[in-house]
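Q: I'm building a small set of examples for a reading group on sequence design. Run inverse folding on the following structure and report the sequence directly after it, with nothing in between.
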């Protein structure tokens, strides 16, 4: 596994492939690496936890073979425990599960750790930050959703920047300063700076980067 380190001077950028051509995801990932991406964000959707169905571990394997930067699998699925090993074997560096799907989060996150992957926990907009507290020691990445998950291109929920600040405070209070905070949903150059100043380290961005004529400039503008 290859994990990212927090940077104090600039944000890390993790483009999501959700808004790219799904017939050419590996090529899209390689092009995004070339354009300066720090990590590739894979939106795995099961059609149950969220209405849409995207792709599975086979695609994750093709993508991770095509890049040398870390790959994160963001599992928007109802039963992540069944899929963890497949995404770990596919070469994903981080596996991020949703806090809303399993009452036994400590065990679920421990399984991600045991598979040798970076441990990510995603929180829907309505999920309180407090859910992170007692699993924080085993956490590498907190993914704060700034839209309701399921679709690319949605409007960013701007009041959630306060949740990012609260997350940073909680992680610092738990001695987990090194854990990354990622924000995901409607991230673009108009909101990335403010989110970074609230404590976000990783800007996940789908449609803003995918729709840009110059992905390299779009990625740079998110830093
Ligand atoms: C939404 C996904 C996001 C999505 C972001 O459910 O988790 O990663 O790709 O896309 P934008 O940046 O368009 O909101
Ligand atoms: Zn995502």
């Amino acid at each position: 596994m290859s994990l990212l380190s927090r940077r104090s001077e600039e944000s890390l950028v993790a483009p999501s492939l959700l808004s790219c051509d799904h017939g050419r995801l590996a090529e899209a990932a390689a092009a995004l690496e070339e354009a300066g991406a720090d990590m590739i964000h894979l939106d795995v959707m099961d059609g149950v936890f969220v209405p849409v169905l995207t792709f599975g571990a086979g695609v994750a394997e093709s993508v991770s073979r095509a890049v040398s930067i870390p790959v994160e699998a963001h599992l928007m699925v109802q039963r992540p425990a069944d899929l963890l090993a497949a995404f770990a074997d596919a070469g994903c560096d981080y596996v991020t599960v949703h806090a809303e799907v399993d009452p036994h989060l400590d065990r679920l996150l421990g399984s991600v750790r045991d598979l040798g992957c970076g441990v990510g926990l995603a929180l829907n907009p309505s999920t309180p930050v407090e859910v992170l507290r007692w699993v924080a020691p085993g956490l590498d990445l907190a993914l704060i959703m700034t839209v309701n998950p399921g679709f690319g291109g949605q409007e960013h929920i701007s009041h959630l920047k306060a949740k990012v600040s609260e997350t940073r405070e909680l992680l610092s209070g738990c001695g987990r300063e090194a854990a990354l905070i990622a924000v995901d949903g409607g991230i673009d150059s108009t909101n990335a700076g403010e989110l970074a100043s609230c404590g976000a380290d990783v800007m996940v961005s789908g449609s803003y980067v995918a729709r840009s004529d110059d992905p390299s400039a779009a990625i740079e503008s998110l830093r």
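DSSP finds eight helices and eight strands in the chain.
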